[in-house]
Amino acid sequence: MKVLKFGGTSVGSAARMKEVAKLICDGQQKIVVLSAMSGTTNNLVEISDYLYKNNLAGGLERINMLEQKYNDVIEELYSTTEYKSQAGLLLKSHFDYLRSFSKSIFTLFEEKAILAEGELLSTAIFQLYLQETGENSVMLPALEFMRIDKNGEPDTAYIAKNLALQLESMPDKMIYITQGFICKNIYGEIDNLQRGGSDYSASLIGAAVLADEIQIWTDIDGMHNNDPRFVEGTKPVPVLHFEEAAELAYFGAKILHPTCILPAKLNNIPVRLLNTMDPTAAGTLISTKKISKKIEAVAAKDGITAIKIKSGRMLLAHGFLRKVFEIFESYQTPIDLVTTSEVGVSVSIDNVKRLDEIVNDLKKFGTVTVDKDMVIICVVGDMPYENIGFQAKVVNALKDIPVRMVSYGGSNYNISFLIKAEDKKRSLNALSEALFN
Ligand code: ADP
Ligand code: ASP
Ligand code: MG
User: Fold this and answer.
1) Which residues pair with 407 in a beta bridge?
2) Which of 201, 229, 254 most suits a substitution to test ligand 1, by most atoms within 8 Å of the C-beta?
3) Are residues 5 and 202 in contact, defined by beta-carbon separation less than 8 angstroms?
4) Is 101 helix (H, G, I), strand (E, B) or coil?
5) What beta strand segments (E) does 76-143 contain?
6) Hey, where are the domains in the chain?
7) pTM score of the predicted model
8) Which residues sit with their C-beta closer than 6 Å to ligand 2?
9) Which of 170, 246, 356, 392 has its CA 20 to 30 A from that of 89?
10) CATH no., domain 296-435
11) 190-207 confidence digits (pLDDT tens)
12) Class of domain 2-219
């Protein structure tokens, strides 16, 4: 069985949905994971924002505008009046549900229920379309099997067990349609896998059913060697190792959700990145590929804060780093980069919710400096240290850029730099020029 995930743009209009239907109806059994139609999740975030601010009129106006967009979609998607009216009823129930939130108190719980509507709508509309065209497909409700635990991490045992039960309860189907992004949490409430999380849904599902392959269909022909939003002339990378893809996803390559490679890697399931707009393009195959001895790609992660702790008292003495790291742990704040010297340690974080408390506690150990608005630039490839020359090449490419931190040696697959946000575009272009042109 294959798992195919189609992102927001891939299902972003009636015409695109018809293209997806053509792609998936090839006589092979599969699970199809859909995102919300492009723009919808952002619209739902905006609606929630109005409701949080108790601007009910504003919220209702946005809900009605979104409803109109969907009315246009169903008008174009279905060919029979019977299905158009069925879809009309379906839309009405979803949008009446959205409108019902303007009558209640609004919390994070309500917001998550609202955000889930994007994927619930896209899958319902799409499944109805497959029904109209006579496909042997069925809805596989994600809320019946996708669950996160008390730490917000996927409960893989629960997912595998309940997904298997769902599949057993509807055998002999060719196409199982399910929602990306959405899940339940430990309290049985509607929750999600964070923005962009449909990729993660697909890889969790792929791992749960031990799929032959996980395909991520999007609006570009695979993982490019640099961020196409900032660099011109980027090229797709045909093959990547799981480790390389995981580094790129974690360090900002938006094409993949930061943690979506892990379930595939743990189960050795190849991941293929493919382009819905150009289905015959080769894309990128992510697997346990052969060693390439090459620098493959560059990515950038925004919104980084660097924290330096300088101490006169032998910072690196026995137990000192542990104490520093424990502070970050106690505020549930993951660290991305770490660099050390005899007199100090610098770390970078992307979650600044508890920054003030962290800084306060760190001051017990030394003087603390905070640099905000930083970016991690991550160069990824097959770079064991014996493979001489690559560090020099990369550092040389950034010779005109002020670099705040450098990190290499944590793995053979990445070398990372911390720079100012204002230098991001210049750095990405300089690296492309030096490494790929
Ligand atoms: P989807 O809606 O299908 O999940 P996303 O917008 O999340 O699609 O991801 C695809 C986008 O990721 C591309 O359109 C591209 O602009 C962006 N992107 C950023 N870095 C890369 C990269 N290295 N390779 C390919 N795409 C990238
Ligand atoms: N619809 C969600 C989002 O926009 C999830 C996804 O598209 O992957 O973030
Ligand atoms: Mg995405």
Assistant:
1) 416
2) 254
3) yes
4) helix
5) 137-139
6) 2-219, 296-435
7) 0.95
8) 7-8, 35-36, 41, 118, 180-181, 195-198
9) 170
10) 3.30.2130.10
11) 999 999 999 999 999 999
12) alpha beta
